[in-house]
Amino acid sequence: MSTNNSNSSCVACSCSIVLLLICTVASASEHPSETAEIGIDQQTNNGMNAETSDIPIKQGSFPGGDVFVPLIAAPKEPQFFASYIKLDNQNTNNLALVGLGDTFGLYRWEDNGLGDGWQLSFFGAFFSQFNMDASSNDLLNTDYQVGFPFTYRQGSFSARLRLYHQSSHLGDELLLGNNPPPRINLSVEVVDALLSYEWRNWRSYGGLSYILRHDPEEFDPWGAQAGVEYRSPVNVLGANQFLGGLDIESFEEINWKAAVSLKIGLAYGRQLQGEKGIRFMLEVYDGPAPFGQFYIREITYYGLGIYFDI
Fold this sequence. Notes:
By secondary structure, the protein is mainly β. It has three helices and 13 strands; from the N terminus they run ααββββββαβββββββ. The protein has helices at 3-30, 40-45, 172-176; strands at residues 60-61, 80-87, 94-110, 117-131, 139-154, 157-170, 187-199, 202-215, 222-236, 239-251, 258-269, 277-288, 298-309. The two termini are 37 Å apart. Residues 1-9 and 24-53 have low confidence and may be disordered.
């Protein structure tokens, strides 16, 4: 793929993400009454603890939230966050990870029971890594994602099917610096599917992914993902929820080496849908790097992240 095609893909992804963020903010400001007056007992009866979910209550066009609860520990879940991490055994020791992304509901078909049904959405996100050891905090890489998730919930069971595009782009400072890495124009279209089950304060999930189109051309297409999560109401340091997640991903392209992500922390605010919140998470990661073309490198890092629920 040519550089012009790569730049066009980058511009298209950026425009899609900006449009998504504008739509999200506009929807939140225009529909404040959509904040759900749902009690803890009602959501618990549906197999969900009240603090675990963004389950929407509006059927039809542009519903709030999603019937599939976002993953806690997956490195590339569309959300707003900033993390400061320390790498082990790498030339660069300190990185800042920044993500901007959201999911915008397009249409929801309600089923029997509170929160049950089908939903079609659009999501856009980008994930950037910055070298904090450099004097100008150089941008190393940015991964762009744009796609359509189709989600379903029935009681304690939920599922997500996604079709999305990802393209990855190295930072100019890295390419123009000393010893720049050989550039790989990594661009893929992926379909993935997850099945999730919730039990009391616990949740487990698992699924597969398949790369439909890829650049470079020689690329093994299969992937697998599984994880477990825990959420519980607390009253510690002003927080209203303790939460943690363990996510494991593995891909055929890198000989099924496991990428393990662990995040544990406290959440503030957002007890009902429509409310804003913030999460402080301790993060540990070990395995192939989730940073664009650097996926062939094995890394270990730990750090602290701040996540914003808007």
